[in-house]
Amino acid sequence: MNAHPTKELLAAEAAQRLQEIEARPEALKPKDRLKIPTQEMPAQDPAVRRGNIEEVACGYSPEQARLEALRCFQCKNAPCIEGCPVRIDIPAFVRAISEGHVKQAIDIIKLNSLLPSVCGRVCPQEVQCQAPCTVGRTLKDVGQAVSIGRLERFAADWERAQGTPDIPPVKPPTGKKVAVIGSGPAGITVAADVRREGHAVTLFEAFHKPGGVMVYGIPEFRLPKLIVQKEIDTLTTMGVKLVTNFVVGRTRALQDLLDKDGFDAIFIGTGAGLPKFMNIEGENLVGVFSANEYLTRANLMRAYDFGHAQTPIFRSHKVAVLGGGNVAMDSARMAVRLGAEDVHLVYRRTEVEMPARVEEVAHAKEEGIVFHLLQNAKRILGNEQGCVTGMECLKYQLGEPDASGRRRPVEIPGSEFVMPVDTVIVAIGNESNPLIKQTTIGLETDKWGHIIVDANGKTSLDRVYAGGDIVLGAATVILAMGEGRRAAASINRLLAESIA
Amino acid sequence: MYPILYREQLSDDVVLMRLAAPLIAEERKPGQFVIVQLDSKYGERIPLTIADADTKEGSITIIFQVVGLTTHRLAALREGDMIENLVGPLGRPTHIEKFGTVVCIGGGIGVAPLYPIVQGMQRAGNKVIIIMGARTKNLLILEPRMRALADELIICTDDGSYGRKALVTAPLKELCERNPKPNLAVAIGPPIMMKFCAETTRPYGVPTVVSLNTIMVDGTGMCGGCRVTVGGKTRFVCVDGPEFDGHQVDFDNMMKRLRAYKKQEDEARTQCRLGQMTACPP
Ligand SMILES: Cc1cc2nc3c(=O)[nH]c(=O)nc-3n(C[C@H](O)[C@H](O)[C@H](O)COP(=O)(O)OP(=O)(O)OC[C@H]3O[C@@H](n4cnc5c(N)ncnc54)[C@H](O)[C@@H]3O)c2cc1C
Ligand SMILES: Cc1cc2nc3c(=O)[nH]c(=O)nc-3n(C[C@H](O)[C@H](O)[C@H](O)COP(=O)(O)OP(=O)(O)OC[C@H]3O[C@@H](n4cnc5c(N)ncnc54)[C@H](O)[C@@H]3O)c2cc1C
Ligand code: SF4
Ligand code: SF4
Ligand code: FES
Q1: Residues B19-31: pLDDT tens digits?
Q2: pLDDT over threshold 80, residue B269
Q3: Residue B144 sits in the same domain as residue B179
Q4: Residues of B whose CB is below 8 A from A422
Q5: Minimum distance, in Å, between the CA of residue B11 and any CA atom of chain A
Q6: Ligand 5 center to residue A240 CA distance, Å?
Q7: CB burial class (10 A; 0-12, 13-18, 19+) of residue A31?
Q8: Are the C-beta atoms of residues A198 and A172 closer than 8 Å to each other?
Q9: Are A490 and A465 in contact (CB under 8 A)?
Q10: Would you place residue A304 in the very low, low, confident or very high pLDDT band (cuts 50, 70, 90)?
Q11: What is the distance between the alpha carbons of residues A396 and A373, in angstroms, rounded to a whole number?
């Protein structure tokens, strides 16, 4: 575990460099910009953070942010914008930060994104906005692209620190009612965009707390729950009615919301569900969990708060996590924080193919998680009590590329070995949430149960729209938000027509 | 917030409550359940069957046995107290139609979830035979209500303190041997009882429905905590069940999984004895 330079040190270095740059009379040339080092994100010391739940990445100091922003070439063609699913005007907001106009920066970001403090933290920037960045391209290292996400987070955090955020203006009441099902990023976005037009919005949430995966999946150490709560507070201040403990399809049928309760349109943003298992021997032994169960108990029910939490959480000693995405990293890192001594991550491809954010992979390694690449579980072993005692694994090598373009892992016959563990967390993805499909006649889905929508986000049912993971399959926060914006625009058009 | 309208102690460790929940009362069907959580910050979410509902009062009835921390805390509440979170109705409703003769077997607290099913089966025009079992007489619940609905009621106690001294499987076997044999059996109770009921009916080919009481978290098909093996496939009790074909369920695996958190639950009890927790399980 390598030590990080402290937050104070990083801030001081940046302040000094910034002073030097500002002392120079002439404007920065591209080659000067390239000389500014990528600003490292200050982070909690790995040895310390293993034992707490607090956020790992601490955020840039104002000087670091300005310095990082100065690295941007302000490209005319701005390829970064193409890489952002919601097309934030990146050069403009980065420039504002470089000039010290943070308020202006956040205003620019908010024209396109409703959740900058979330996306700045959790977007897979290295494959989105930062992938095509000219600075990164010039330095032949995407890791040295302008840190757009961190700057976005900086601007959003700055705004939150100012106290009251600007509440978007709401038009006069139109008399129209819209139901939004699910309070994840897709639902939050629709609720805000539809409410702004003056329509009455009710946001239904099955859980006792709103926020979707942002509260029950992504851990506190990556996305503080207070941030999500602030976004929800903004909605309720705008007049959105929040109804928790309400499962559409059970507490009320979707069709009844339209026919009996007088809603004029509905948005379904129920997210992914039904965790996938591998269908291998031993998968239902005691000590085998889906990442969703493990993380929900840990996050939503605060299992990490020993002595207060009433949700039982398995006290593991040796943990194996199966998978290579964000969900796998979160589970592994949560297991460390819940006191496991050894945590192993088992992934059947190599690190290059891992879908997890690069930063999470790096953080996981720093926290002492042992990576087992090109390996996979064959069966899970248990004792007479039905408890996990180990996992038999197989080794793999990379073969020909498959349909996804990634080289397919092929098993090496006879390479079996046993990894002694008492807990196995399965994080190999989710299918779609089945409830609404099961209980709504005429709602078309594909063979994976994802709701089918047209280019406007409309489903096969009149006045019913959908977006986010329930349409895309397990995707990202920013994509869910993008879909939400599109559906909200369609709903607003539909309602405007019926008013006119 | 969901107020407790009525509370009654049915036996030493079984409590009946009516909770104000108009929406749930309106929508619920036999076989469905709710998830109760006493407080949002730290509370555990536990599933309880909706034993009855009153749409006029806008209330649902739950009947629960005090077994651990949450049921203990719930039992300590009084009329007028509030439950912070209540979500439902969850699960697929019981498949109710006119089958002919239906034997309903309830063991221990399983009699509570059985009650609305018996009501439904009886209304659908079935001949309903009820077998109720308990360890001892004073653990029997809902006898008068069940008697009012049954065409035939058989009571068994393990210790012979009331009714027949037998396990519920004994009269069940006799019923299966009758001609005509029952068209359907519905068994709800401890997993071990459901397992043996299913084994009893299997040779006679009497279809047997069981209602599984696995550990749950969300109840909407998201966490996978409630999974069971049915017919060799992984199924989710909260969205695919709670009722399944008893002849297909892997009860042994389910019983092991129910003990998954046993250590922590026991610890909660110990901590309590040491005075380290504010709310104590029995
Ligand atoms: C552990 C984990 C880590 C992740 N990490 C990242 C990351 O780093 N970066 C990133 O971009 N993405 C990440 N993701 C993915 C991202 O969180 C999702 O793509 C995104 O949250 C999807 O948003 P959504 O609005 O479609 O649904 P969700 O966030 O899933 O929200 C759906 C909501 O609907 C509710 N609901 C479901 N059914 C009903 C019903 N019938 N009635 C009422 N309410 C209902 C649910 O309770 C839930 O609150 C991660 C996901 C997980 C699980
Ligand atoms: C669909 C469904 C419907 C149910 N309906 C009822 C009902 O109507 N009345 C009722 O009394 N109970 C019912 N249960 C069981 C009830 O949910 C558990 O008794 C409760 O979760 C125990 O919580 P606790 O915190 O008090 O005990 P814990 O401390 O969690 O557990 C105490 C003891 O109970 C066992 N236990 C834990 N969870 C369960 C469970 N789900 N089923 C059986 N044993 C368990 C533990 O192994 C432990 O020995 C139902 C369960 C399901 C899944
Ligand atoms: S929203 Fe995500 S992809 Fe878009 S600029 Fe921000 S971090 Fe990049
Ligand atoms: S591509 Fe990179 S350098 Fe060019 S404008 Fe975008 S962020 Fe700046
Ligand atoms: S309780 Fe979570 S999936 Fe069934």
Answers
A1: 999 999 999 999 9
A2: no
A3: yes
A4: none
A5: 26
A6: 28
A7: exposed
A8: yes
A9: yes
A10: low
A11: 8
Interface contact B220-A247, CB threshold 8 A: yes
Mean pLDDT over all residues of chain A? 91
Tokens coding A498: 């019926």
| Alpha carbon nearest to ligand 4 atom 2, residue | A133
A409 beta partners = A398
Same domain, B123 and B86: no
Quick one: pLDDT band at residue A176, thresholds 50, 70, 90? Answer: very high
> Do A291 and A324 form a contact (C-beta atoms < 8 A)?
no
Compare CB distances from A286 to B90, B260, B271 and report the shortest one's residue: B260
Q: Which backbone phi and psi does B277 adopt, to 5 degrees? A: -130, 145
The position carrying tokens 């089945």 is: A434
Kindly tell me the sign of the dihedral angle through the C-alpha atoms of B213, B219, B220, B223.
negative
Whether residue B234 has its Cβ less than 6 Å from ligand 5: no
Q: Total structural domains in chain A?
A: 3
How far is it, in rounded angstroms, from Cα A81 to Cα A95? Answer: 14
Give the range of the structural domain holding residue A377, as residue numbers without chain letter: 275-430
Mean pLDDT score of chain B: 88
pTM of the model: 0.90
What confidence tier does A96 reach under pLDDT thresholds 50, 70, 90?
very high
Prediction ipTM score: 0.87
Q: Residue B258 is encoded by which pair of tokens?
A: 């129910």
- Structural domain boundaries, residue B33: 2-90
Q: Which of A164-173, B22-31, B205-214 has the lowest mean pLDDT?
A: A164-173
Helix, strand, or coil here: A416?
coil
CA-closest candidate to residue B156, choices B210, B107, B102 = B107
